[in-house]
Design goal:
Belongs to the universal ribosomal protein uL22 family. With about 240 residues, the protein is of the alpha+beta class. The chain contains seven helices and five strands.
């Protein structure tokens, strides 16, 4: 038995074409590079547009090092942690080399001991960057995250047949270095278009977070100044009366 279906819907091919054109224009507007061209100061060579999917020449290590040295860094420490440096370093290796958002996500779902402590140190260091230069979590990456050896307590270890040994209680230090992300460099170093697009959207989100934080900070300063002016006006009125 053949079934036929009827519909009152009209042909929306024109609307679909217009919607597709709008999406393409929006994508081009988001992904269009603006002054994202690398120029070597020594040779004067231009390496082309960042979003070009062709195989671009690799940057010299000296060029990469000069760019990364200009980025702002923030150091955080935690001392006297009651855990072996070898065991604690396994947790730190999960966060090293990642962006701060990815590192916090990794540590959130990590079940190893003191993973929450490492995340706490990372957040505390990111708060320092926000206070000093107004950098948000989406604008930072974990440059270094490792542990070092601290003091070691010796205790008696009872053994059989009246013997005894030495038992060591190890302590550790954590050192964290956060660095500002150089988005143009990261985008240029990616070899596929999807990776470049990913970092472009990450850059756009970081700019939005920074703008929102700046607006919030300005609003807070305005309210503080307003309250101070009101308090000063009350003092002047009380002194005049």
């Amino acid at each position: 038995m053949k079934r036929e279906f009827s519909s009152n819907a009209t042909n929306n091919n024109d609307d679909d074409d217009q919607l597709q054109q709008q999406q393409q224009q929006h994508q081009q507007g988001v992904l269009s590079p603006s002054n994202n061209v690398f120029t070597d100061s020594e040779t004067g060579k231009t390496f082309g547009v960042i979003l070009d999917t062709r195989k671009l020449p690799r940057l010299k290590p000296s060029v990469v090092k000069r760019r990364l040295d200009k980025c702002k860094t923030y150091i955080g420490r935690e001392k006297g942690i009651r855990q072996s440096p070898w065991k604690l370093n396994r947790v730190c290796q999960l966060a090293a080399g990642l962006t701060l958002e990815e590192a916090l996500t990794q540590l959130k779902f990590c079940d190893i001991k003191n993973s929450d402590l490492v995340a706490k140190v990372l957040k505390r260091t990111s708060n320092l960057s926000d206070i000093r230069d107004g950098l948000q979590i989406s604008q930072l990456e974990v440059k270094e995250c490792f542990t070092t050896k601290s003091l070691m307590l010796r205790r008696i270890k009872p053994m059989g047949r009246g013997r005894h040994g030495v038992m060591h209680h190890k302590f550790s230090h954590i050192r964290v270095v956060l660095r500002e992300i150089d988005f143009p460099l990261r985008i240029y170093q990616q070899r596929s278009f999807n990776q470049k697009k990913k970092w472009m959207f990450h850059q756009q989100r970081a700019a939005q977070d920074a703008q929102a934080a700046k607006a919030k900070r300005e609003e807070t300063d305005r309210l503080v100044k307003q309250s101070e002016d009101q308090l000063q006006a009350r003092k002047d009125a009380a002194a005049a009366s």
